[in-house]
Fold:
Amino acid sequence: MAYGTRFPPDYRDFLSVYGSGEIDGMLAVFAPRMDPHVPSRHTSRLPADVLDLPEVDEWNDPLCAELYGPADVMVWRETVEADVLGWIPSSDEPGTWPVAVYVHGGEWTVYDCSMTEFLLQLLAGEFDGNPTGLARLFGKGSAEFTTG
Structure:
C-alpha cells in the first residue's frame, strides 16, 4: 500500500478490466503509480503548487467547506477542460468515499456515489446539471474507452 490506503472496490474492478486511459478522449482515468521512476499521470493528491491557489479551496456547500479541504482529495481523473475528479477518503472503508469534482474556474462539489456510479450518471445525464465542463459527455448515453 504505497498510497497508505486501499482504493475503492469499484475503482480496482474498473482498472482490472479496462486499465488507465481516456473516455472519448476527454476524461482521463488514472491508475496508481507502480514505478516512481516512470513518469506518468497517476492517481495522487493535488500537487502543492495547486493547493497554494486560493480558488482551489472554493466549495459549493458550506458544510463541505468546513469538513474538507483540497488537500483531502485523492485525484483519479481529470478532463480536457481542466476539471478534477477525485475521492474524499473520509473513512477507513474506501467503498464509502464520496466523489469530489472541481470544475475549472469554479468550485468543488461532493457527490455521495462511487466513481463508477458517477460515470454512469454523467453519461446518462442523471445529475440536475452537468457536474463537469464536458458538455459532450453529459447525457451522451455511451462512450468509447481508449487504454493508454
Remarks:
- The beta strands are 21-23, 27-29, 44-45, 74-79, 84-87, 99-102, 108-111, 145-147.
- Residues 36 and 91 are 27 Å apart (CA to CA).
- Confidence is low (pLDDT under 50) at residues 35-40.
